[in-house]
Amino acid sequence: MNSFEVTGGKKLSGTIIPQGAKNEALQILSAVLLTPETVTIRNIPDILDVNLLIELLADMGVSVQRPDRHTAIFKADNVNIDYLHSPEFRNKSGRLRGSVMFAGPLLSRFKKAFIPKPGGDKIGRRRLDTHIIGFEKLGATFNYHPEDGYFHLDASNLRGTYMLLDEPSVTGTANIIMAAVLAKGTTTIYNAACEPYLQQLCKMLNRMGADISGIGSNLLTINGVDYLGGTEHGILPDMIEVGSFIGLAAMTQSNIRIQGAGIEHLGVIPDKFRQLGIQLHYEGDDIVIPEQELYEIQTFLDGSVLTIYDHPWPGFTPDLLSIVLVVATQARGSVLVHQKMFESRLFFVDKLIDMGAQIILCDPHRAAVIGLAREQRLRGITMSSPDIRAGVSLLIAALSAEGKSTIQNIEQIDRGYQYIDQRLNSLGAEIKRL
Ligand SMILES: CC(=O)N[C@H]1[C@@H](OP(=O)(O)OP(=O)(O)OC[C@H]2O[C@@H](n3ccc(=O)[nH]c3=O)[C@H](O)[C@@H]2O)O[C@H](CO)[C@@H](O)[C@@H]1O
Ligand SMILES: C=C(OP(=O)(O)O)C(=O)O
Q1: Annotated binding-site ranges for phosphoenolpyruvate
Q2: Does residue 345 have its Cβ closer than 6 Å to ligand 2?
């Protein structure tokens, strides 16, 4: 288990370029299974989860060329589906969430799929109902085999239909779209997730020959086609990294330029950080966060305490709430952070409290943060990273704290943030990988 030793209290400055988006990459990589032709993907983040998904594709017989660390050329013309039934697949796919999205393309192209219990962050219950019920509506049958922990899916005859999703699941919507593109007839998905990464997936599929309309809305219409061909695709900047860097800059009183932030795809993210009192402005597609002595949390218009909560797109992503929470600890003012989607994502506040933050964990979903207005600095401590976003939040806390901190279990951070220690050190941070 690797650790970071962080010497806090240093102001950072300079330019940082966001990596390609992890959660887009996981969808796009799954889609290469839909065609026997060549698919070239650019701006791939060099992170654990994504590298593992690429390894799984190669293990299944997909040919993979890597001209460089951020580009890959795939050809899925000789896929060995039986590999999905092997203990190696179960073991590797259980280490990330993205592998669940192999099911949609495999069902549509090969008529069967196996889904082991997927991995990913342990942040509360993460059910697969939306995925499986969507597949069933398209005509697939499924059996859960308790002895091997697999869902076995069969779909000799997928047919388009109307479906109203129980919830706008991100990976569920991606899976159903990928199952429907090669089905017979028209599929209509209402209450679809519609975040930019799903829009990117739909656009890529249309370039491959699919017929999807309603992209960007929660009502998608998919006219099934017989065949999909090859394409090229560039992954967007990672909006969660962009949000993390905005928070990091404010918390460490740093002057940071986020170059090529993909501003048009960020939705309400910049405004949520502005509500915390953080100044930021745009120069072209760059976000510039100036050094700020103090930032003051706004209230609602009637003067009541601000609440920041997650909501499916175009609402605020749950993946940035941990960062909002840590940044609020040094603001002037108070905020209620309400994590509606996941039950176990706020428990890391214990570590921030140990560092001296004033936070009341009201229940598993809500934490009230009373900002210290920099009158008291956080203290460095030893802590362990429970999940990817809590991990980065603890890193931000440690970078702003007085003294040294040790963050254990940094594999969680490496799952989603590319060379984070080197990139932040080049801005003046002091992070040692132990
Ligand atoms: C690999 C990947 O892309 N992972 C992302 C994906 O996970 P993932 O696709 O697994 O998440 P889902 O969208 O399915 O749902 C996340 C959680 O929110 C709950 N839920 C969802 C919608 C809703 O209206 N109400 C509700 O309570 C679900 O029951 C579930 O517990 O989307 C999540 C929600 O943006 C992100 O946190 C994950 O980073
Ligand atoms: C929860 C996340 O990832 P995953 O769905 O891959 O566990 C995340 O990216 O914050």
Answers
A1: 22-23
A2: no
Q: Measure 294 CA to ligand 2 centroid, in angstroms.
A: 31
Tell me the CATH number at 210: 3.65.10.10
- Please give the full DSSP string across 75-113, using - where no structure is assigned: E-SS--GGGGGSHHHHHHHTT-SGGGGGHHHHHHHHSEE
Q: Is the pLDDT of residue 149 over 80?
A: no
DSSP 33: G
**186, 329: one domain:** no
Whole-model pTM over 0.95: yes
**Ligand 2 centroid to residue 121 C-alpha, Å:** 6
Q: Where are the alpha helices (DSSP H) in 216-333?
A: 239-251, 269-275, 321-328
| CB of residue 97 inside a 6 A radius of ligand 2 | yes
| Domain containing residue 150 | 22-234
Instruction: Please give the distance, rounded to the nearest whole angstrom, from the Cα atom of residue 404 to the centre of ligand 1.
Output: 35
- Does 64 lie in the same domain as 47? yes
Residue 85 pLDDT grade (very low, low, confident, very high; cuts 50, 70, 90): confident
User: Ligand 1, atom 14: nearest CA belongs to which residue?
Assistant: 169
Residue range 9-67, pLDDT digits in tens: 999 999 999 999 999 999 999 999 999 999 999 999 999 999 999 999 999 999 999 99
